């Protein structure tokens, strides 16, 4: 196995000095000249095109195949799924304890877009962490941060999905929030610091939720789902590479023999797949479906996706005719056939692949023994990984209060409005009833009309003028934030 030293891991692990940073920050497919979602600085800074975004927020053809391979769910089916997910989120502890299999099936079908951010927050355990550590993100956000990490993070911001409407502008709100989340994590885990592969993970989260929620989801992914992946030396990712290689022997012996013949170390082709949770590999519709399952079922989904792609690309002698060496094989794995990344095909294959949590843990112990025999003890002492939402919840049982959905739209009437209401109530007992009847007859009445008891009363605050959402039963955002775009 190829050795990977701290601070010089193909650009993924940022080095301590600025000199080494300049030499590593372009590598491991983070280069801007690749035919992926990255472009030149001129495109990033001076973007003035009128091209429209797709339904995911990507401008033009930035996220390849995002529209062509997306499977649209009929609106009536989507509405039904939203109702079911709202019920699950309102009774999360009961569903996790008694109906987890049904919840898993619904994640496999795909979380409704309007509720994906909230669902990911609950699945990852980020919601519980946020409630148990209220104010911590604000405290971390207010701190300056370690200069060595701040400098690296700032220089990485423009690389994260630069053709997504949220991150297209240098210094825009998306890049600002991304900086806040990544900087806060370096303060939360100073011994771990920052790894470049964390940036796309955080960016995907920010596309679906506010910065504080994204921070706690990132914490959970780094500590529970992929522990040790972003630590110096990247020992955990190397170990999982060997696990993937061993599992491939059972899933696709043909692919395994080919990689062994050409001495293709797993670290060469699976590092970005696993560390970025396929967010930089698959078309966007497939990314979202994979993440729905990943946050529900754990790292086995990442292993399964990797095994499916290797099997599809290298699993038969016909497909290997054009791969006569290591270079050709690497090129093939860099340009995976779009048929195999298509949402419906990939999700079906991932669900059906017979690789369980027990298989992964059994192979993990075997590879750990081999590692110790060859290299000694691991330098990184990572916590044991949790295999999905149920395991995370069982390890740290939350209280009912931790799971309660908190309203995000709270309207506080101004002092003047409160006083005016009190005066009206004292002057005429029938006036309040009249206002209530008026609201009942006029479903479209705004809060400002109700709050204004008489012409002489002071004007309500601007916030009250803009609150017709409070009267609407159609808004899925009425109880908690759903999206952040």
TrEMBL record:
InterPro entries: Rab-GAP-TBC_dom (IPR000195), Rab-GAP_TBC_sf (IPR035969), Rab_GAP_TBC_domain (IPR050302). Coiled coil: none annotated. SMART domains: TBC (SM00164). GO terms for cellular component: plasma membrane. The keyword Coiled coil does not apply. Residues 110-298 form the Rab-GAP TBC domain. Residues 1-46, 413-485 are annotated as: Disordered. Keywords: GTPase activation. GO terms for molecular function: GTPase activator activity; small GTPase binding. It comes from the Eukaryota. Residues 447-462 have a biased composition (Low complexity). The keyword Lipid metabolism does not apply. Residues 11-21, 33-46, 468-485 have a biased composition (Polar residues). This is Rab-GAP TBC domain-containing protein. It comes from Esox lucius.
